Amino acid sequence: MQAAESAVREAVGRSKVDQVLYEQRDAIAIDLMKSVQVQLDRLKTGIVVANVNVQNVQVPEQVQAAFNDAVRAGADRDRFKNEGQAYASDEIPKARGTAARLREESEGYKSRVIAQAEGDVQRFKSVLAEYQKAPAVTRDRMYLDTMQQVFSSVSKIMVDSRSGSNLLYLPLDKLLQSTGSVANPAAPAAGTAAPAGATSTAPAAADARSRDGARTRDREGR
């Protein structure tokens, strides 16, 4: 018994707690059998140890609370590790899919911008060629196209006449309404025919004056 207790103290002393409790109990049993047999042979007892079975292993009462805390901490560590691995397994594919989608969108945006830029270059080259053939005509056409785009959503135009100090005001919304009322077959024909005709003549003259003023301003600017 004394030889066995001595061998147990020696084996437990050089082993870790987890090895004694769970991991290496069979290996410790083999070491104990050898150690006990060496001591018995040295004492010439004539006893042969056939087997050692490690059955009940407990930590001392003095460290039982700390050991329980360590066991719970180990269990929490394993649980958090498993949760982290599960979260990584769920999020990493999503992140990779998002990255692939963003790369595809960026490539599409790149191709679209390059194609648009190349188209703008070709269009500019064609305009340049026409401009070199007839600069004045090209300038007038570009000016008229720009004015059409700018004033397409404007209902009132103020034209400054360079020949005098009068400021020409074109109420396009009223003129359009008057023109529409004249063109509408349901509108009264007897009482309003003359004012409508007068109104339709005035916009034509005002529009002619505005075009003349614009051309004059353009020539003076050049």
Describe the structure.
The chain is mostly helical. It has three domains: 2-58, no CATH class; 64-133; 152-221, no CATH class. 74% of the residues lie in helices and 5% in strands. The protein contains seven helices and two strands, in the order H-H-H-H-H-E-E-H-H. A two-stranded antiparallel ribbon has the order 1-2. Strand 1 and strand 2 form a beta hairpin. The model is unreliable at 187-206 (pLDDT under 50).
Q: What's the pLDDT, averaged over the residues?
A: 76
Number of domains: 3
Instruction: State Rg.
Output: 50 Å
| Helix percentage | over 70%
Strand order of the largest sheet: 1-2
Taking pLDDT < 50 over at least 5 consecutive residues as the criterion, the unreliable ranges are 187-206
Distance between the termini: 121 Å
Number of helices: 7
Topology:
Layout: H1 2-13, H2 17-23, H3 25-42, H4 64-133, H5 135-150, E1 156-160, E2 167-171, H6 172-183, H7 193-221
Antiparallel strand pairs: 1-2
Helix pairs in contact: 1-3, 4-5, 6-7
